[in-house]
Amino acid sequence: MRHVLIVANQTLVGGHLHERVEHILAVDPETRFHIVVPATGANGPDPARALAGARRRLSQAFEALDDIGARVTGEVGPAHPVVAVNLAIDRLNPDLIVLSTLPAGASRWLHLDLPHRLQRRFGVPVEHVTAESQSVDRVGAFEPPVVHTPDDTVHVLLAEENQHDVDVITMALAEAGTRNQLRVAHDGANALSFMRAVGPSEVDLVLFDLKLPVVTGFDLLAEIRAADEFDKVMMVALTTDEAADDRARAYDLGADAFVMKRPDYSQMAHVIDDLLAEVAG
Prior knowledge:
Rossmann fold; six-stranded parallel beta sheet; 10 helices; 11 strands
């Protein structure tokens, strides 16, 4: 029997989790779910209102998930999601944490790099889902979560160590005109392991920094281009230093494009949009 801990933004808990839970149940009908709704704002000027809102959303979640036969328990937790998970995880010993938030560009939780921090701290795979077109799965343990996405979704893997660059590209993807799903690996070894685990059907576009730790971007590129199964995956090198030698080496190894990083998401958005459109087309 599988146990899934859902940590949900209280403004969204009643709606978009329905489909995600259905797909988890399709894999294992005996899965048990526990929802924690952090009482965001409980430390502010009107804690009673924050707690009442969290309780209302939790009740809505019970009603929505009960309709599809999910076995659900839940609680209102402390305002900070890491504290809320810390209190729940010892009791529940979950196999998966699902983090449910606002769209990537609007989520304060993402700016805190919460999915990666939860996975690193608790050693449990963490999946991130949002209410709109984009969902983000932070690469943790390599048991790929089952994520339903429409056929026209572009599956993007970002291999990037620098958190500011991750935030910029995440926001650019959220603004893009092409539906996409983002997964993030913070070093080349994780990116390579993830691609081998999920296969080519779950990766259409790889954005990778050339100076990744553990396995460099050059080595990641060489490994992927040596594998015939990934021959249709677009590989795009990212760099802050447009050195001619690096550009030549990347193209020699099979890069499809060589992109200079932009300092903010509005500048990067046009580049990302063009890449997504090319992959989707």
